[in-house]
Design goal:
Layout: H1 7-14, H2 18-26, H3 33-46, H4 52-58, E1 64-69, H5 75-90, E2 94-99, H6 104-116, E3 121-124, H7 139-145, E4 150-153, E5 163-167, H8 169-182, E6 188-192, H9 198-213, E7 223-225, H10 230-241, E8 249-252, H11 255-267, E9 277-282, E10 295-298, H12 301-317, E11 325-328, E12 331-333
Parallel strand pairs: 1-2, 1-3, 3-4, 4-5, 5-11, 6-7, 6-8, 8-9, 9-10
Antiparallel strand pairs: 10-12
Helix pairs in contact: 1-2, 1-3, 5-12, 6-7, 8-9, 10-11
């Protein structure tokens, strides 16, 4: 294999000094247009390509960002990741994607990897909540110790001074339940996500608030816990079907669990929405292709991705600016899985 040409060879070809070639490549000093063109021509003739990483490190940036996701197989996180990547690419940044599978040990490994790769900053979707930003055993703690710019997406981390982008999960849970109440439903079940994740907790609080506002009691037997995967939605819905007085509507705290509930309804010959209304949360792309198409609360995924990248680049430019916490509003997407309940 032919060895790569060096700066000295480019300098000889262009009849200039190696220092001049370096200034042309790195734009570190004025060089006349005539000399610049000679250097570029010599680079083309020799097939010389500057080391982009070395150049960027000299300038203090690699124009590379890290993205840590808890579950890239989950369509919601996949769609969030796609929007983050598109926003970063549009602004001239590459993205390194790391999938933790909800494992904090993998978070540690990937944080170390991204630090070694010398990324300019990290967009972080964590496996759960943190309570102590100074804890070195926490991957976020390691990032804070190194003052590496970080933005957290879809997780509320009380007490931790970090830029964050969230949907208003409390409002979303309220909107979903209020929609079912307005349709005439009075026995409304909730399939929650893991209790240690703030998005799920806030959605359930919104569900409770809508009941209280409407003067309806909250029947705790109608709240079943899932894990955001379809199978847990199927299991939770099966338990609800076995109750002596089953619900007439189900609010699932994400679309995947709602699809598990749709499966149980179909298996039991229960017509949706005539006999049972089901609403989800997230508005993943697949939600419009379920049968029937799923009514859901839409998270502004595109906007979340854009804002996360924007906040991270602002933090890269100014590490001392005040912390920002952006809460974006969800919206109700009406499809065919919810309907009126006769009094």
């Amino acid at each position: 294999m032919k060895p790569r040409p060096t700066i000295r060879e480019v300098a000889r070809q262009a009849n200039v000094s190696p220092t001049t070639v370096s200034h042309v490549i790195n734009e570190t000093r004025f060089v006349s247009e005539q000399l610049r063109q000679r250097v570029y021509q010599a680079m083309d003739d020799l097939g010389y390509r500057p080391n982009a990483l070395a150049r960027s490190l000299r300038q203090g940036e690699t124009h590379t960002l890290g993205l840590i996701l808890p579950d890239s197989a989950n369509p919601f996180f996949a769609e969030i990741g796609r929007n983050i990547e598109a926003s970063a690419f549009e602004l001239g940044y590459s993205l390194i994607l790391c999938n933790t599978e909800g494992d904090i040990n993998r978070e540690h490994i990937y944080v170390d990897l991204l630090i070694r790769k010398q990324v300019d900053g990290i967009i972080f979707v964590g496996t759960g909540d943190r309570s102590d930003s100074g804890d070195r055993s926490d991957p976020l703690g390691a990032l804070f110790q190194r003052r590496l710019p970080v933005v957290v997406v879809d997780r509320d981390l009380p007490g931790i001074e970090v830029d964050a982008v969230l949907a208003d999960n409390l409002k979303g849970g309220y909107m979903a339940t209020r929609h079912l109440i307005d349709l005439g439903h009075r026995r409304i079940a909730c399939i929650s996500g893991p209790s240690h994740l703030t998005p799920s907790a806030y959605r359930v609080t919104g569900y409770r608030n809508a009941h209280h506002e409407a003067g309806l009691p909250v029947d705790h037997s109608l709240i079943q816990r899932g894990d955001f995967h379809p199978e847990s939605g199927r299991i939770a819905a099966s338990r609800l079907f076995e109750l002596p007085d089953p619900p007439t509507a189900i609010f699932a705290c994400n679309d995947l669990m709602a699809m598990g509930a749709l499966h149980v309804a179909a298996t039991n010959g229960c017509l949706v929405p005539d006999e049972l209304s089901i609403i989800g949360f997230d508005d993943i792309e697949l939600a419009s292709f379920s049968f029937p198409p799923l009514t859901t609360i839409s998270q502004p995924k595109k906007k979340m991705g854009e804002v996360a990248v924007q906040l991270l680049l602002e933090r890269i430019q100014d590490k001392s600016r005040p912390v920002q916490r952006r809460i974006l509003s969800p919206s109700l997407v009406l499809r065919q899985s919810t309907g009126g309940q006769e009094a």
